[in-house]
Design brief:
CATH architecture of the largest domain: 3-Layer(aba) Sandwich
Family: Belongs to the XPG/RAD2 endonuclease family. FEN1 subfamily.
EC number: 3.1.-.-
Low-confidence stretches: 341-353
Subunit structure: Interacts with PCNA. PCNA stimulates the nuclease activity without altering cleavage specificity.
CATH topology of the largest domain: Rossmann fold
CATH superfamily of the largest domain: 5'-nuclease
Radius of gyration: 21 Å
Shape: globular
Keywords: DNA damage, DNA repair, DNA replication, Endonuclease, Exonuclease, Hydrolase, Magnesium, Metal-binding, Nuclease
Cofactor: Mg(2+)
Number of domains: 2
Mean pLDDT: 89
Helix content: 40-55%
Largest sheet: 7 strands, mixed
Number of helices: 14
Strand order of the largest sheet: 1-9-6-5-2-3-4
Length: about 350
Amino acid sequence: MGVNLKDLIPPEAKVVLDDLRVLRGKIVVVDGYNALYQFLAAIRGPDGSPLMDSSGRITSHLSGLFYRTINLVEEGIKPVYVFDGNPPELKIKELERRKALREEAAKKYEEAVKEGDLEAARRYAMMSSKLTSDMVEEAKRLLKVMGIPWVQAPAEGEAQAAFMVRRGDAYASASQDYDSLLFGSPRLVRNLTISGKRKLPRKDAYVEVKPEVIELSKLTEKLGITREQLIDIGILLGTDYNPEGFEGIGPKTALTLIRTYGSIEKIPKGYLRTREEVDVVKIKNYFLHPPVTAEYKLEWIEPDQKGIVEVLVKDHDFNEERVKNAVERLSKAYKEFLKGRQLGLDQWFKKSS
């Protein structure tokens, strides 16, 4: 879910990218779980069924990860993926809620298939997407043979991504969620892994989805608040650590309350109604001081065609010709980076630990 700050983002704090080459030479830390869930939801058949190999194992996430990452590298972007570790205790209730929603959606999917309602079947199938630990490990294995670095976060991947950007090891974090802004990422790229034409739910119409870059400093400046106050607004609206937020408080009201009283702790209790007790101080402290690691190395190496064929073709029945053609594209993009030298090899092979 994540916090929804969409209605609070002023135009001055956001740049819509018509061309991904604007990010050429930039290291972008992609929220791995977020991206894999997007691929699981989007890459499906007309009835909502995911791609599978001959053993019945889902491969939609691998297909999306493989081809979309190649597209990014061809645009000159240096992606690094970060994966969630152990979820904080604050998030347990939200994870249980998501599990229940997936299970309910799975039941509705079966009903829709029986009734022949393909539109509903696809919608419920997307909602029932489940990412297993085996699927994540396969994604990491694929990235390794592609020569793309990945980082294992101790806890929240978006917190780790924000840390890496603040540290200067990357230009921006990339996710559909806005949480990395609360974790202090100076820049957030949205729609990086889902740009292109997308069908509107329940409508026979498509919209063009373009990547956008949001700058934290411009966001807080235009709203006239600090990052800590942005966290307060997020808590009022609802985060993964208090999903329901506070009753009757929308984006505009939340901003007004924080501007008026300075912090969530100083808002009169009468304004803050919620079904469950919320420890706002504990949530705020988690956003300010999340568990992260500085033990990582960012290194891009030439793709291992044999290894990629092993993972995708031999293990998961991908079309060998298509895979090899894609690997050629990846190798060519890699060599053009080395040949260009306009950014310097030291930037391409940037390492941090």
